[in-house]
């Protein structure tokens, strides 16, 4: 049948050809096509197609045609064994080809396994609660100059919500405190434990909302009495060994005792509920009387949570509308506008605005990276396989002449791909297993080791094997089995028959464009981090050690400060709430002079003694420092506060009254300090206020003289322990805490570095495949050029100009994309670097060096090859 003539439905024709026995195919197919031609002339195209489909289906009735038998398809042990032997010998004969493909696939599959483990870990958080779809956390949107988000609410809100509305089937408040000191007396000896996950004052209804079962005790009554506690099995073993923990006693910070009334089954790793000690909420008044009161609407303290299990059918939007009037009703004097929102349990882990560990965008990004690495590895496999096609064309021709069917050759090449894939998956599985501790450390996760025995991971590995085998093997197999025997044996296979050269170029350009985008990102993040760490913060951060205050009374704390000042390695000491830059800030609203209302911006309260300015080298630019005092008497403010108030001459602000903390902290402005960065470079410099309030101090800020710092810290520890025998000595260097502001950026930088390396490595494999193809194509041309007097440099330039062009095109694509992405990333910083041309010069330069290293060996080998050998290649 001529190609211009209409043809029958290809799908049914192809299925018939596959199903029918080869010896019967020619006879039956001829009759089918003859009938189709006749029907086409009489009935027309559409009816002829339907009649053809009907005829094909009728042939599949038993006894009409003889189907392929098992030994003629791929289902017998002998056939598999033959395919395996041939494939294995082929791979051993082409060791370089096999090694490169295995390395590329193993690397990308390792990343896929690790990314799958990460996505599985994060995707399963808090999915074990029976009524999870009805569990919500009440959170707060705070509207001032800008909108900020907090996962906490005022402490009375939960009780009011429970009493005034019927939306919640259960409502529970919880106040979570981290890094607490727990003391346990055992055999007359007091043991001290620092619990980083902390403990939580919790209402008993909490355990009706969440599925955290008790192994000992009754969850209904365990926390009803004051000074009672529930601890996890691990802590029970840690504190009391094999003894029964029920009835035993623990103490918080040596002040509040709790009797153990229940033992909780260890919390799963996939939950955002972190505390391992839950204590009765009725004891909260002993911890913080103001916050435990029903009138504590004046502030939102981090760690104060409210959870609710909504009744079936309740609409969360309806609940939010009912919560809207709370601010005006219970805090009418507040100028701030708060919106209380319901956050579904399933979003708690993924909403970074409210402290979620990871965003869904990050999950999708990780998945996309894994998919990209997998696809690029398959592309490189295809490039290398088609580059090898010329070497195997005669093999295909011989096997076809000897009677091999195309389907047999096709499955042979697929089987070869399968061998490489299986080896790669095995290597990747082992590598991923060994790398899990590194991933856990890097991403601060707890991926369990036994995850690799999980059926989902095993199914994922099996699915990857099948998909990669078909994805990477199909195209090369179709190309290789499509050679005509005569053309293959004569060595006249054309470039078009080996797959489009321009297609391979396009893939290489895409790979290098992505690599260059990653390189641009890496350079920008590195420069921004260097800028953040080396910039002048407006205060002294080096050689400052922050030590927990300790002591039960102000006199004890002052006595220790005096004794520490006598140490030779100590320059100055200040007792304070926090350092100038800290992750724990106390935001407060102020009222200025005779204004009737509070200002519309928040003030960062820095509570400290009179040595604060000297210890941190804060520069006083107007007025004087505060006088020594234990209570609020005077205030020093920064430039930002006066600028927000509209002062042009800072001297005019001296003596003006400031009313902070609802009027409980009052004093005149006596001094102005130069602006200092109180948070990370993500945020603008806050309006700050420094005043004395000894009851709020939590740390000693100790400036060391820089010599023998470790020895001085040991002396500080010894002296501190003498004054605080019932406490644990804790300290940290201020510059380390400030570096922690950029922990997410550091993690991002390391991630970009890793993925840049992987993308570049896989891109280099693609280049290797392309240069292999080019060398095979130009072997005879190189020989002729050398015979005619062409120099080595000219031969190298034949290849060099090709790759320079590819890198240049990739850069033209990558540069605007990289500029756009990193410009948007820098928008999150108030203080940032400029995207100058040097970033892009470094990118293109490094890309050219990478290309030169990747293809240099193959190009030089081709350039120095004896022309006699080149001309004999055909």
TrEMBL record:
Identify the residues that the record assigns to the ABC3 transporter permease C-terminal domain, covering every copy.
368-482, 754-867
Q: Which UniProt keywords apply?
A: Cell membrane, Membrane, Transmembrane, Transmembrane helix
Tell me, in one coarse class, where this protein mainly resides. membrane
Location of the protein in the cell? Cell membrane
Pfam families for the chain: FtsX, MacB_PCD
Show the coiled coil region(s): none
> Transmembrane segments in this chain: where?
99-121, 363-385, 409-436, 456-486, 507-526, 754-775, 803-822, 838-860
- The answer to keyword S-adenosyl-L-methionine applying to this record is no
InterPro entries given in the database record: ABC3_permease_C, MacB_PCD, Macrolide_Exporter_MacB, Permease_put_prefix
Describe the location of the MacB-like periplasmic core domain by residue ranges.
98-324, 514-714
Task: Work out whether the entry's keyword set contains Transmembrane.
Answer: yes
Q: Name the membrane topology term.
A: Multi-pass membrane protein
Question: This protein is called what?
Answer: ABC transporter permease
């Amino acid at each position: 049948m001529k190609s211009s003539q209409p043809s029958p439905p290809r799908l049914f024709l192809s299925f018939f050809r596959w199903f029918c026995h080869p010896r019967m195919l020619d006879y039956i197919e001829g009759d089918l096509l003859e009938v189709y031609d006749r029907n086409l002339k009489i009935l027309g195209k559409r009816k002829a197609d339907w009649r053809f489909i009907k005829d094909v289906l009728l042939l599949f009735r038993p006894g009409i045609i003889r189907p392929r038998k098992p030994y003629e398809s791929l289902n017998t042990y002998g056939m598999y064994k033959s395919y395996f032997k041939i494939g294995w010998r082929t791979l051993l004969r082409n060791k370089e080809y096999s090694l490169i493909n295995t390395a590329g696939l193993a690397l990308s599959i390792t990343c896929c396994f690790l990314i799958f483990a990460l996505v599985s870990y994060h995707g399963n958080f808090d999915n074990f609660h029976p009524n999870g779809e009805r569990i919500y956390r009440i959170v707060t949107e705070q509207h001032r100059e800008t909108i900020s988000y907090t996962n906490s609410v005022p402490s009375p809100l939960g009780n009011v919500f429970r009493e005034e509305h019927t939306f919640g089937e259960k409502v529970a408040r919880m106040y979570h405190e981290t890094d607490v000191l727990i003391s346990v007396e055992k055999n007359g000896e007091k043991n001290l434990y620092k619990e980083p996950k902390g403990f939580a004052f919790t209402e008993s209804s909490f355990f009706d909302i969440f599925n955290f079962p008790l192994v000992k005790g009754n969850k209904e009554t365990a926390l009803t009495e004051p000074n009672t506690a529930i601890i996890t099995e691990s802590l029970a073993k840690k504190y009391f060994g094999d003894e029964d923990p029920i009835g035993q006693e623990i103490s918080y910070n040596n002040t509040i005792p709790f009797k153990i009334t229940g033992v909780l089954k260890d919390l799963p790793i996939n939950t955002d509920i972190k505390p391992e000690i839950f204590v009765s909420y009725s004891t909260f008044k002993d911890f913080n009387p103001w916050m435990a009161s029903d009138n504590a609407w004046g502030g939102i303290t981090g760690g104060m949570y409210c959870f609710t299990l909504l009744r079936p059918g309740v609409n969360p939007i309806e609940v939010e509308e009912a919560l809207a009037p709370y601010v005006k009703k219970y805090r009418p004097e507040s100028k701030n506008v708060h919106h209380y929102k319901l956050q579904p349990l399933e979003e708690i882990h993924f909403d970074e605005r409210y402290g979620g560990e990871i965003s869904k965008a990050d999950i999708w990004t990780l998945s996309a990276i894994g998919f990209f690495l997998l696809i690029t590895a398959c592309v490189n496999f295809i490039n290398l396989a088609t580059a090898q096609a010329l070497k195997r064309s005669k093999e295909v021709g011989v096997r076809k002449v000897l009677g091999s069917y195309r389907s047999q050759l096709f499955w042979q090449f697929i089987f070869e791909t399968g061998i490489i894939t299986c080896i790669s998956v095995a290597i990747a599985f082992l590598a991923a297993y060994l790398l899990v501790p590194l991933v856990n450390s890097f991403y601060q996760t707890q991926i369990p080791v036994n995850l690799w025995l999980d059926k989902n991971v095993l199914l994922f590995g099996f699915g990857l094997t099948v998909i990669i085998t078909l994805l990477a093997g199909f195209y090369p197999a179709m190309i290789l089995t499509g050679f005509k025997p005569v053309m293959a044996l004569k060595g006249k296979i054309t470039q078009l028959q080996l797959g489009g050269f321009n297609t391979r170029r396009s893939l290489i350009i895409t790979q290098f464009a992505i690599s260059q985008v990653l390189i641009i990102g890496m350079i920008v993040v590195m420069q921004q981090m260097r800028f953040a760490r080396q910039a002048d913060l407006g205060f002294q951060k080096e050689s400052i050690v922050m030590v927990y205050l300790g002591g039960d009374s102000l006199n004890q704390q002052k006595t220790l400060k005096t004794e520490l000042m006598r140490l030779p390695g100590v320059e100055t000491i200040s007792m304070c709430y926090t350092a100038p830059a800290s992750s724990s800030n106390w935001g407060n609203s102020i009222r200025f002079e005779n204004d009737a209302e509070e200002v519309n911006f928040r003030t960062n309260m820095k509570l400290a003694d009179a040595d604060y300015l000297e210890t941190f080298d804060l520069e006083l630019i107007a007025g004087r420092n505060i006088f020594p005092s234990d209570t609020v008497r005077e205030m020093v403010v920064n430039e930002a506060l006066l600028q927000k108030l509209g002062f042009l001459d800072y001297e005019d602000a001296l003596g003006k009254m400031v009313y902070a903390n609802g009027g409980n902290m009052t004093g005149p402005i006596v001094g102005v300090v130069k602006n200092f960065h109180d948070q990370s470079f993500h945020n603008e410099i806050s309006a700050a206020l420094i005043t004395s309030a000894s009851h709020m101090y939590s740390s000693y800020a100790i400036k060391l003289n820089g010599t023998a710092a470790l020895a001085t810290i040991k002396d500080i520890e010894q002296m501190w322990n003498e004054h605080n025998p019932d406490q644990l000595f804790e300290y940290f260097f201020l510059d380390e805490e400030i570096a922690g502001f950029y922990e997410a950026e550091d993690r991002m930088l390391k991630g970009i570095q890793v993925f840049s390396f992987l993308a570049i490595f896989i891109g280099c494999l693609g280049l290797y495949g392309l240069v292999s193809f080019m060398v095979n194509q130009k072997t005879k041309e190189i020989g002729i050029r050398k015979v005619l007097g062409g120099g080595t440099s000219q031969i190298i330039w034949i290849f060099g100009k090709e790759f320079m062009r590819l890198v240049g095109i990739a850069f033209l694509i990558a540069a605007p994309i990289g500029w756009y992405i990193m410009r948007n990333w820098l928008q999150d910083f108030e203080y940032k670097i400029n995207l100058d041309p040097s970033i892009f010069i470094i990118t293109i330069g490094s890309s050219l060096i990478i290309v030169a290293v990747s293809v240099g060996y193959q190009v030089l080998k081709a350039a120095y090859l004896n022309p006699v050998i080149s001309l004999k290649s055909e």
